[in-house]
């Protein structure tokens, strides 16, 4: 039975949201690793990099390099921001280490700042979070532009509330800087960022009793949905969604599992795995069909006869070798004649 792929063609125009995200990591106690590292991503694609060793902004895409060459103020802003962030993040991590009396070991202070832009409505939004040793400590309300502190970071409140320059920069970042740079990235990287690569979809199963995994790989962008349906309706019971993960070539992959232990075999064809990009009604629909499931197990009836014959012949050869070895050892030691006595 062939794997059934149905492309449901309902082309519609939908707005697309683009994002620009900055990840900043400041650490102490790590050997052979920069104390400060910053990377920026547009729609999940790495576009620039900076660390405390190079003190500059390095493009990570050809079109990013072109942007920085043709728009030198873009490069200059990122260099100056990187230099300032190196010092600010050191101050922040030192405050936390001092407060918690962390004099040794490895400690990490992280910042995640991001903005989104709707290319149809031109609306923008953003968020910013800070963490220390893998725990959220501070966030900003982008609407009221006020800091929110967790209990662990309560001691930090007065310092940041009094730092008006930091809040002013954050406000300008959300309303002007981030959306401006994001739009420039989209213009220069349009051919790469606005493409749509359809995935290859497969059904996988480790053993006959395990869940059936619907695996999609090679798709771009990562704004995509995948789910199991029964008779055309999305189902949730017995379904487990995996994360969207990056591939080495810049595309993405994801998996959605369906527990088939309670599904009668006669009803399998009522179930389908459906993949679609967000904002697009085109879908790739894959029917739950036992004949096309890739599995590690091999039914006895399908076990290759050649393999079985090979195993038998191999065992016979092994037995012959062992017998020859025993004979060789016996001949090497020689035969000893039984002692006799002659009567005179």
TrEMBL record:
Secretion signal, residue range per the UniProt entry: 1-15
InterPro entries with a match to the protein in the record: Ig-like_dom (IPR007110), Ig-like_dom_sf (IPR036179), Ig-like_fold (IPR013783), Ig_C1-set (IPR003597), MHC_class-I_related (IPR050208), MHC_I-like_Ag-recog (IPR011161), MHC_I-like_Ag-recog_sf (IPR037055), MHC_I/II-like_Ag-recog (IPR011162)
BP GO terms, sorted: immune response
Any one GO CC term of the record: extracellular space
SMART domains noted in UniProt: IGc1 (SM00407)
TM annotation in the entry: 303-328
Pfam families reported in the protein's UniProt record: C1-set (PF07654), MHC_I (PF00129)
Keyword S-adenosyl-L-methionine (UniProt): no
Keywords for the protein's UniProt record, in alphabetical order: Glycoprotein, Membrane, Signal, Transmembrane, Transmembrane helix
Residues in Ig-like domain copies: 199-286
Family membership: Belongs to the MHC class I family.
PANTHER family reported in the protein's UniProt record: MHC CLASS I ANTIGEN TRANSCRIPT VARIANT 1-RELATED, MHC CLASS I-RELATED
Name of the protein this chain belongs to: Major histocompatibility complex class I-related gene protein-like isoform X3
This protein's encoding gene: LOC114449410
């Amino acid at each position: 039975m062939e794997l059934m792929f149905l492309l449901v063609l309902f082309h519609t125009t939908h707005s697309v949201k683009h994002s620009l995200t900055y990840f900043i990591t400041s650490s102490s106690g790590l050997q052979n690793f920069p104390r400060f590292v910053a990377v920026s991503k547009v729609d999940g694609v790495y576009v620039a990099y900076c660390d405390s060793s190079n003190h500059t902004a390095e493009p990570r895409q050809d079109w990013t390099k072109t942007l920085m060459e043709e728009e030198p103020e873009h490069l200059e802003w990122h260099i100056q921001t990187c230099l300032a962030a190196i010092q600010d993040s050191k101050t922040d991590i030192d405050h936390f280490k001092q407060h918690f009396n962390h004099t040794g070991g490895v400690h990490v202070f992280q910042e995640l700042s991001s903005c989104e832009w709707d290319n149809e409505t031109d609306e923008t939004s953003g968020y910013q979070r800070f963490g220390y040793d893998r725990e959220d400590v501070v966030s900003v309300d982008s609407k009221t532009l006020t800091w929110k502190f967790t209990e662990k970071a309560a001691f930090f409140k007065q310092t940041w509330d009094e730092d008006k320059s930091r809040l002013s920069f954050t406000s300008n970042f959300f309303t002007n800087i981030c959306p401006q740079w994001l739009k420039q990235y989209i213009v220069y990287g349009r051919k790469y960022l606005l493409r749509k690569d359809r995935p290859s979809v497969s059904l996988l199963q480790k053993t006959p009793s395990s869940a059936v995994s619907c695996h999609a790989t090679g798709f771009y962008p990562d704004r995509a949905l995948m789910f199991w349906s029964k008779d055309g309706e999305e189902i949730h019971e017995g379904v487990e969604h995996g994360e969207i993960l990056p591939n080495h070539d810049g595309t993405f992959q994801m998996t959605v599992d369906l527990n088939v232990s309670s599904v009668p075999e006669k009803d399998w064809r009522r179930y389908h795995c459906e993949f679609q990009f967000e904002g697009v009604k085109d879908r790739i629909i894959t029917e739950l069909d036992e004949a096309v499931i890739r599995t590690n197990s091999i039914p006895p009836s399908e076990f290759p006869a050649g393999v079985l014959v090979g195993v038998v012949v191999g065992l016979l050869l092994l037995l012959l070798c062992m017998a020859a070895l025993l004979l060789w050892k016996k001949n090497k030691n020689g035969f000893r004649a039984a002692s006799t006595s002659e009567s005179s």
